[in-house]
Design goal:
- It is a single chain.
- By secondary structure, this protein is an alpha+beta fold.
- The protein folds into 2 domains: 38 residues; 141 residues, Glutaredoxin (3-Layer(aba) Sandwich), CATH 3.40.30.10.
- 41% of the residues lie in helices and 18% in strands.
- It has an 8-stranded mixed β-sheet.
- The longest helix is centred in the first third of the chain and has 20 residues.
- The N and C termini lie far apart (60 Å).
């Protein structure tokens, strides 16, 4: 509302200060710039909650394998900083990127807790919350799961996170096998987990 009020004042000042067609032209240019600004949305580093969807989207677009040795997180405000690769301990891992303000992430949480009870190793990583804000959320929506906060928005960008929730399945060597955008059925995740964790 403040931006709209400033916009109207700006247009009135332009029309008052310059006469005739010049005023109209300046007003038109200013109006177009303001419309573009309003439609541009948040900067690229700020992830917005995804549109509600009944099905997730699976993609083969993956981050380079070495990035998981660079993505760092902290589980508590005074806890150690770890990389995803260190958290893996050379075993398959399902990494779930979320935020406490994301309603779709809250829907996904119980699925992930059920998967953990069936042997799936899950790590929750918040893209925008402080470490001390996470325990209350996980206790309510994803009980029993380890969680941490990424060290800055650039970490989520490096991991290729463009919407929430994003789920990434890593094999024991740290290579990304699959990723899903949006709430994903537990059976789908479990089948992919068994395919990745079963020795060949």
């Amino acid at each position: 509302m403040k931006r709209e009020a400033v916009s109207r004042r700006l247009l009135r000042l332009l029309a008052w200060g310059v006469g005739g067609s010049s005023a109209a032209l300046l007003a038109l240019v200013a109006s177009a710039a303001l419309v573009a600004s309003a439609q541009s949305g948040p900067p690229a580093c700020c992830l917005a909650p995804p549109a509600r969807s009944s099905a997730s989207t699976s993609t083969t677009t993956i981050a380079r394998s070495s990035v998981w040795s660079e993505i760092r997180f902290q589980s508590t405000a005074d806890g150690p900083v770890l990389t995803v690769r260190e958290a893996q301990r050379d075993r398959p891992l399902l990494v779930a990127f979320f935020a406490t303000w994301c309603p779709e992430c809250a829907r996904e949480g119980p699925n992930l807790s059920r998967l953990a009870k069936r042997g799936v190793r899950v790590l929750l990583l918040s893209v925008s919350d402080a470490p001390d804000a996470i325990p209350a959320w996980t206790a309510k929506h994803a009980p029993g799961l380890p969680a941490g906060a990424l060290l800055g928005p650039s970490q989520g960008v490096a991991a290729g996170v463009r919407s929430l929730p994003t789920l990434v399945l890593l094999d024991g060597t740290g290579h990304e096998v699959r990723r899903w955008n949006g709430v994903t059925a537990a059976d789908t995740l479990l089948a992919a987990w068994h395919s990745t964790s079963t020795p060949r």
